[in-house]
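[User] Once you have settled down, look closely at the record that follows, and write a paragraph about the fold.
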Amino acid sequence: MNKSNPERTCIVTREKREQSGLIRIGFDRKTNVLKVGISEGRGVYLLPDLKTFDESVKKGKLIWGLKLRRALSDDEKKFLRDQFEIEVRRFDVSASSSNG
């Protein structure tokens, strides 16, 4: 770990990685907006894997980690999953391009 890339923990697996190796989901209480990626407000980190995202929703870890006082609507779940999937693809592309 170095100062320019701090270590974070996946809320589902509890695996620690550099921040750049995880995907952040944030909730801005001022605007009441959920967002995948860089954002202001409270955030949680997940491994870049759709199974991990699905488990975070199923087990309530996403709601717990963001300290939401309500359940996610089906539309919010779909929106976040779609955005998360885009981020996972970016990880896959950057990993394959760095491997050669």
In short: The longest strand covers residues 23-28. Residues 7-94 form a domain with the Hypothetical Cytosolic Protein; Chain: A; fold (CATH 3.30.1230.10). The first helix runs from residue 50 to 58. The chain is about 40% helix and 20% strand.
